[in-house]
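This week, study the protein below.
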Amino acid sequence: MPFIQPLQLDNTKTSFFLLRGAVQHVGVSRATTHLAETLAKQNKKVLIFDTLLGLKNYPVKHSKPDKICAVLQGVSPLTDIITTDKDIDIIAGSSNQNLNALSPMAKQKIKSDLMNLARNYQAVIIDCPAVVVHPLFTDIENTLWVTTPDVETLLKTLRQASQQQAPQIVLTGIKNDTERNKAHLFIKNLVPQCQIIEFFS
C-alpha cells in the first residue's frame, strides 16, 4: 500500500498546506475544512485562505464585499476581511473584484501580506481549486492533491501530482473500504512514491 502518513506540525514555525484539485468538483474546499478542523482540535491556530478571493468558492460568506475590494486594491490590510468560524480564521468571500483578475504585481502584494500574516498562525491552509490554472502559490511546502476515487479523476490528478518529488494525495468521496482499497492499489501501481494523507477523524 502507499505510505499513509498522519499530518504533524512543526511547532517552531508556521506550516503551509496548499490543497489543489486537478479537476473541478473533487471537494477541495471540503478537504480544506476537514484539515482545518482536524488541526484546530489539536489546539493549533489555523488560517484558511481562498485563492478565488472575491469569487463565490469557499463556503463562508463575508458580510462586507466592499472590504474585500479595498484589500484587493491594496488600500486595506488582509486582517480586515478575516472571518472566524469554529475557532478557524478564514479569508474568503465574494465581491465585484477577485484575486485572479489582479495584475501580477498586485497578486504578489497579496501573497506577501499573507506570508506576513501567517506568522500569527501555526497552520495556513490555501484552498486552490482546479479553475485556478496558474496558481499564485506554487512553492508551498505541503501540496496536497485532492481527488475522488473514480479512475478518470485519479489519472488526471496523478499525472499532475507525479511531477512533484514526493506527491501527496487526499482521497475524498470514498463510499466503503472496498473502494478505498481499490483506489490505494491503483495509486500504488501508477505512482509508488505517492503518499496518501489521512487526516479525517
In short: The first helix runs from residue 28 to 41. The first strand starts at residue 3 and ends at 5. The chain has five helices and nine strands.
